[in-house]
Design brief:
By secondary structure, the chain is of the alpha+beta class. It contains 25 helices and 31 strands. The longest helix is centred in the last third of the chain and has 47 residues, at about 660-705.
């Protein structure tokens, strides 16, 4: 099978060839079965010709018959006397030889029940001439309900002795002779059966159908076609995937078996009979083995089965063993050998698979169990329901109905593939298709119920209508019946009235159901005027571009039931300054906008129409990007020929197309938005400078007051630090906390974001750190307490990363913790190498429910003279050069290793100079903070 992984076209060719061959056999078999004359009854050869002609009491030994008291009945066939077979000439001798008081043991066949019973009776109690000898006969043990024989009056228990004037000649092969006479009958003609019923001869004329097949057989054929079609679809769609090939072929082969398994009445009477029988047998056994083989790959591969090849191929050996048993045993047991072989194959393969799965159950992942749960339980339920139906309700004539629960198995495969997107297939049925199907089925069902009720009304009215009589001044109810004309007039009037009421009721019921369905599938119509008014209210009450954009997409998605919607605002027709979406997660939307905003801007600037752009007419690259993310229309937002933005409209939740009214409403919404956007731009321009000036003045004071102005002196340590903001203010900070001789605490942190808010948070964080330092906390305890305080004050989108390190120069020991920050760079004088130390830890302000304290790890390092510890923020590592590449942590390590012989100040300056040199002409984009501690 691995051969087809890279040659899917070869597998598809073989699959199509096999499918055409199997479908051809199935179609030929179906036609032959349906067109061969059938009397729609089953019969067997009568075991003996001793026919009971009188009913007499006897004591039953075995068997239960609820038809009446213990007795041997007229029509029974005597099979044995005293547990011994007899021939027709010795029966009288056996009876004559037995004494009158001797008890005889009689084995009786009751043809109407197709069962044997044992009776005991004293010989003297036997009536005279209680039996007679029949010519070769066959007895009817099953008559199809409403079939040709049933319509002719045939009953189970009838004994056939002549067909179309032809006597049966063999006591052993009577049923075969009867079947041969029947096959010679002509379609559409009448066959005369001469039968014996209750010791009376009858002639039954059975009219053969021109073309007929039992409904249960059609059900089983339909079930097989479902299997066949499902298997072909899976295998043909994904021939390069082994799981799809195995499962698809297994369903296809088993489907062929189910399609023709109940159509074997005349399998040996046509040239294709032997070929069809052999093919059906091979398909069953190999398909069953392939099914279990495929379960090792689907719905998820189970590698534990691949280590030992015999595990995968053992089911094929069992299948071949059962097939051989069927071939060699069929001569001895007849068709029953096939049933035994089929059952044995199912039991062996199922038992083997269960044992293997049980042995490896501990190795199966939770995901594999979850994916296979639906298929497994569907198989159990389908099998259980089929067995229950066969036991409780079904007989041979209705055996095909067990195909109904078995249809659930291929449907379970399709559902599992579609739900979990397995085999790289998307089987989701679109909403509009679902809506159409459910609507059609609903109206058909409602119409059928309505017609059924109308047809039942006359009988209801006829039995419930009292005897009314209308006079000039009253209405009377009489005991005497009305005249025929009066009653007919009254019935017609009442029926017309009830029919009108029912019509209105069913029409109203249909409307209610339609409204519920419209609501479920987002088909409810909306008022464009109200929608436009609601959208205008949203934009009129907001000045911020973000608020306007967010309100637009949310309101449009709500009003039009959109899966997703987005809006982009362009400043000066050059760059996207605002982007908001509904139905996207933040990261995907941002990545998408960064990829298409400039391309979209260029395309929209080439056209000056305010009409919408269908995604289908955009350039290929832009078209594919929009379609891939679920957008189908683009509506430009313009004001006086200036492009202010664009609305990106996704598919409706109902998955119906956009109509002209929808597009006109969106165009009007874009015009409304242009006014709001221009007002927002104007508001920003007027307030920007004042805001910046005020913020910078505040931030500058905070920044200057918070950073260390001097470097503390600690014996055994050389310390140097600096923080260079990217703008007037920054969010980086560092601090030295001491108070105990020969000890110092170094803290370096980075507040998310930039600008004044980041600087304010930085000041707050540093104040908290200084306040908590006085409690003698370890670095981990300090961060835990600080996190509890910061979590209450920080916005949910803000957080702080930090490194805290306690140096003890007497013990030459460093204890530190990392709250989501960059690693601590440690140069070891002993190994001459730089190590990045990264203990576990989350950023401050992200969590306050125990995860922060649990995740935070504290580490201790024993250092020696000459060891260097370097603290940096991400402004150092993420500095970009002219080629767009980042400075990176490896560059920091390299500089530290090459500068280890210098003092702390020199090392600090070399790091800063290297970063600036790497950035070249690029402006500094983030704050730079560097702290160096060297052991001396």
């Amino acid at each position: 099978m691995a051969y087809f992984d890279n040659r899917p076209y070869v597998f598809r060719l073989l699959l199509v060839t096999l499918s055409v061959y199997l479908l051809g056999l199935a179609a030929d078999n179906f036609y032959r079965y349906a067109s061969v004359p059938t009397d729609e009854n089953w019969f067997r050869t009568t075991p003996t010709n001793v026919y009971i002609v009188k009913t007499f009491p006897a004591r039953r030994v075995l068997g239960r018959d609820n038809a009446g008291p213990d007795s041997i009945k007229v029509g029974d066939i005597l099979r044995e006397v005293n547990d011994a077979d007899f021939d027709n000439r010795s029966l009288s001798q056996i009876l004559d030889a037995a004494p009158n008081n001797d008890e005889l043991r009689l084995k009786i066949l009751r043809p109407g029940l197709d069962r044997y019973f044992i009776y005991q009776i004293i010989k003297s109690a036997l009536p005279d001439s209680f039996y007679r000898l029949l010519p070769p006969t066959a007895y009817v043990f099953e008559v199809f309900k409403d079939g040709a024989s049933d319509r002719a009056g045939m009953r189970t228990g009838d004994v056939i002795f002549r067909i179309n004037g032809h006597d049966l000649k063999s006591h052993v092969l009577a049923a075969g002779e009867a079947d041969a006479i029947l096959r010679r009958g002509q379609i559409g003609k009448t066959i005369d059966y001469e039968v014996i019923r209750n010791n009376r001869p009858l002639t039954l004329r059975v009219k053969l159908a021109k073309f007929g097949i039992a409904f249960p057989i059609l059900v089983m054929c339909f079930c097989g076609l479902i299997y066949f079609g499902t298997g072909f679809f899976i295998a043909f769609q994904r021939p390069q995937i082994k799981a799809a090939r195995l499962i698809g072929l297994a369903l296809l082969l088993v489907g062929f078996f189910l399609t023709i398994t109940m159509l074997q009445r005349n399998a040996q009477l046509d040239p294709l009979g032997p070929t069809r029988l052999i093919t059906m047998t091979i398909c069953f056994f190999i398909g069953l083995a392939m099914w279990f083989h495929g379960s090792y790959y689907f719905p998820k591969e189970q590698p534990e089965f691949f280590a030992k090849p015999w595990i995968q191929f053992a089911p094929y050996g069992m299948a071949l063993l059962c097939m051989g048993f069927a071939i060699f045993a069929v001569r001895r047991f007849g068709d029953f050998a096939f049933l035994m072989a089929y059952g044995l194959a199912v039991l062996l393969t199922a038992g083997y698979s269960w044992v293997i799965s049980l042995y490896y159950r501990q190795r199966r992942t939770a995901e594999a169990k979850r994916l296979s749960r639906i298929i497994k339980w569907t198989g159990f339920i389908a099998g259980g329901v089929a067995v229950l139906l066969q036991i409780l309700f079904l007989d041979r004539n209705t055996l095909g109905y067990i195909g109904i629960p078995f249809v659930l198995i291929p449907l379970a495969y399709l559902y599992t593939i579609g739900r979990y997107r397995l085999l790289d297939m998307d089987l989701r049925v679109r909403q509009n298709v679902q809506y159409s199907i459910i609507s059609l089925l609903g109206w058909i069902s409602l119409l059928a119920i309505f017609i059924k009720v109308l047809l039942a009304l006359p009988n209801f009215v006829d039995h419930t209508l009292p005897n009314f009589r209308f006079t000039s001044g009253s209405i009377e109810i009489l005991d005497d019946p009305q005249s025929l004309e009066q009653r007919e007039f009254l019935e017609k009037g009442i029926l017309m009235f009830i029919a009108i009421v029912l019509s209105l009721g069913f029409w109203k019921l249909g409307r209610i159901g339609r409204r519920l369905l419209d609501k479920k599938y987002y088909r409810a119509q909306y008022d464009y005027r109200r929608a436009a008014s609601a959208l205008a209210d949203v934009m009129a009450n907001k000045l911020s571009m973000v608020d306007i954009a967010r309100g637009m997409v949310q309101k449009l998605s709500q009003l039009m039931h959109l899966k997703r919607a987005g809006v982009l605002f362009f400043r000066n027709q050059k760059a996207c300054c605002c982007r908001e979406a509904h139905g996207f997660d933040g990261s995907n939307w941002e990545e998408f906008c960064l990829a298409i905003d400039q391309k979209l801007l260029e395309v929209l600037q080439q056209f000056h129409s305010e009409a919408r752009f269908s995604v289908d007419y955009l350039p290929n690259g832009l078209k594919q990007a929009l379609q891939q993310h679920g957008f189908c229309h683009v509506i430009p937002i313009r004001s006086k020929n200036n492009l202010l933005g664009a609305l990106l409209i996704g598919e409706k939740r109902s998955e119906t197309p956009f109509y002209q009214d929808d597009l006109e409403f969106l165009t009007a919404a874009a015009k409304q938005a242009s006014v709001a956007i221009e007002n927002s731009f104007l508001h920003e321009e007027l307030s920007e400078q004042e805001r910046l000036k005020h913020e910078l003045e505040i931030a500058r004071r905070i920044q200057m007051a918070s950073l260390p102005q001097t470097t503390p002196k600690v014996d055994g340590l050389d310390i140097a630090g600096v923080s260079i903001p990217a703008m007037e203010v920054g969010g980086d900070y560092f601090d030295y906390l001491n108070g105990v001789p020969n000890e110092i605490r170094v803290i370096v942190g980075d507040v998310s974001g930039k600008g004044t808010s980041a600087a304010l948070y930085m000041s707050k964080v540093q104040g908290i750190m200084r306040s908590l330092h006085g409690f003698g906390l370890s670095p981990k305890e300090l961060f835990v307490r600080a996190n509890q305080l910061l979590y209450q004050d920080l916005e949910r989108k803000s957080f702080v990363t930090s490194l805290g390190a306690d140096f003890d120069s007497t013990l030459r020991r460093l204890v530190f913790a990392r709250a989501g920050h960059l690693p601590l760079f440690h140069y070891s004088a002993k190994t001459k190498r730089v190590e990045k130390v990264t203990p576990r830890g989350l950023g401050l302000g992200l969590d306050n429910h125990g995860a922060f304290a649990t995740e935070l790890e504290e580490k201790m390092i024993q250092y020696e003279a000459g060891d260097v510890f370097l603290f940096v923020t991400d402004g150092v590592t993420e500095t970009q050069g002219n080629d767009g590449k980042e400075f990176g942590e490896e560059s920091v390590s390299t500089i530290l290793e090459s500068s280890s012989a210098f003092g702390a100040t020199k090392i600090r300056d070399r790091v800063i100079n290297a970063v600036k040199q790497f950035a070249g002409n690029n402006a500094q984009h983030d704050d730079l903070t560097v702290v160096v501690v060297k052991a001396v």
